[in-house]
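> example.struct
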C-alpha cells in the first residue's frame, strides 16, 4: 500500500489516503501530492503512470535495481535516481538503499527499492520546514535530497574517523599487519562504493537547480544551493580519503620494508660475529701442529683471539647502528 500526502496552498491537508484518489486531488491546481511505494512492480505503477503521463522507460528504471544516480528529463516529468548510504562502523562495510522518484509540476512519486531507506527521516524534514511547503514539488524534492546527501556526509565523516584510527595504528609499537591490511582493504572498497554514488550527485543537484526546469523557485534556491554545497564537500572529502587510504597502505609497506632491513642487518651482524669463533675453532681442530699444539696455552690463545675479534666486530656493528 502506497503512503500518501497532499498539500494545498502550502498546508498539509491529508495523508495516507488511497492511491486511487490521486486523480481527485490533482484536479485542484493548488494541490501537490506525494506518493511512496516500496518494491513495486510495473503493474503497481500502471495506475499512476497513466494518470501522471510517466514515460515507459522511466517506469522500467524505477522497478529495476542498480541504476546510476541521474536525472532524466521527459516531456511531462523528470526521473531521479539516488542512493542513501550507511556505514557499519564495526566492520567498515558500506551499504546503500536505492531510491527512484518521478517529479512532475504537482506530484512527487518516490519508489524505494528496499525497506532500508528511512523515509520517516525525510518526512520529518518536511515537517520541520513546513514554512517552505508553498514551494510545491521543489519543497518535497529538497527534503528528499537533503536527507540523501546528509547520509553521504555522515558516511564520509565516519570513514574519516576510521582512517584516522588506521593512521594511529600504522606507527604503533606492536602492529597486527594482517588486521591492518584487512581494515585498509575494507575501507578502500567502501570508499570506491561511496564514490560511485556521491560523485554523480553533483550533476543531479545541479540539473534540478536549472531555471528552465521550473522546479526550484527563488525561495527554495538558497536551500538547494546549500544541498549542492554539501554535495561538493562530500565529493571532495571522498576523493581525499581515497588518496589517504592509499598513502597509509604505502606507508605501512614502507615501514614493513624498513623493519625487514633492520632485522636483516642484525641477523647478518650476528652471523658475522658467530663466524669468527667458528673459523678459529675449525682451524684449531685440524690434525696438524699449530702454535700451542697440545699445550694448555694454545687453548687460551684461541679463546682470547675469539673474544677479541668478536668484540671488535660487535663494537664496529654497534657504531654503525647495525645492532
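> example.seq
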Amino acid at each position: 500500500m502506497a503512503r500518501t500526502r497532499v498539500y494545498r496552498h502550502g498546508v498539509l491537508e491529508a495523508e495516507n489516503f488511497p492511491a486511487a484518489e490521486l486523480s481527485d486531488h490533482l484536479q485542484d491546481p493548488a494541490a501537490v501530492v506525494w506518493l511512496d511505494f516500496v518494491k513495486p512492480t510495473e503493474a503497481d505503477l500502471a495506475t499512476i503512470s497513466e494518470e501522471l503521463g510517466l514515460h515507459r522507460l522511466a517506469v522500467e528504471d524505477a522497478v529495476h535495481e542498480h541504476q546510476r544516480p541521474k536525472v532524466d528529463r521527459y516531456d511531462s516529468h523528470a526521473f531521479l535516481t539516488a542512493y542513501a548510504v550507511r556505514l557499519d562502523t564495526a566492520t567498515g562495510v558500506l551499504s546503500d538503499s536505492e531510491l527512484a522518484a518521478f517529479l512532475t509540476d504537482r506530484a512527487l512519486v518516490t519508489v524505494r527499492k528496499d525497506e532500508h531507506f528511512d523515509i520517516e527521516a525525510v518526512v520529518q524534514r518536511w515537517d520541520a520546514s513546513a514554512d517552505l511547503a508553498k514551494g510545491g514539488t521543489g519543497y518535497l524534492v529538497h527534503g528528499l535530497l537533503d536527507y540523501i546527501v546528509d547520509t553521504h556526509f555522515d558516511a564520509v565523516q565516519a570513514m574519516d574517523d576510521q582512517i584516522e584510527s588506521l593512521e594511529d595504528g600504522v606507527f604503533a609499537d606492536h602492529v597486527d599487519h594482517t588486521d591492518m591490511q584487512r581494515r585498509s582493504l575494507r575501507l578502500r572498497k567502501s570508499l570506491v562504493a561511496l564514490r560511485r554514488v556521491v560523485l554523480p550527485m553533483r550533476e543531479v543537484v545541479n540539473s534540478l537547480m536549472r531555471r528552465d526546469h521550473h522546479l526550484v523557485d527563488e525561495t527554495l534556491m538558497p536551500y538547494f544551493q546549500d544541498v549542492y554545497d554539501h554535495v561538493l564537500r562530500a565529493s571532495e572529502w571522498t576523493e581525499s580519503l581515497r588518496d589517504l587510504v592509499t598513502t597509509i597502505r604505502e606507508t605501512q609497506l614502507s615501514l614493513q620494508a624498513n623493519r625487514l632491513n633492520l632485522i636483516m642487518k642484525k641477523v647478518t651482524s650476528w652471523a658475522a660475529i658467530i663466524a669468527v669463533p667458528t673459523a678459529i675453532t675449525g682451524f684449531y681442530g685440524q690434525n696438524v701442529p699449530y702454535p700451542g699444539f697440545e699445550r694448555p696455552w694454545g687453548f687460551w690463545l684461541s679463546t682470547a683471539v675469539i673474544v677479541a675479534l668478536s668484540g671488535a666486530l660487535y663494537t664496529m656493528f654497534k657504531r654503525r647502528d647495525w645492532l
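> remarks
Residues 266 and 323 are 5 Å apart (CA to CA).
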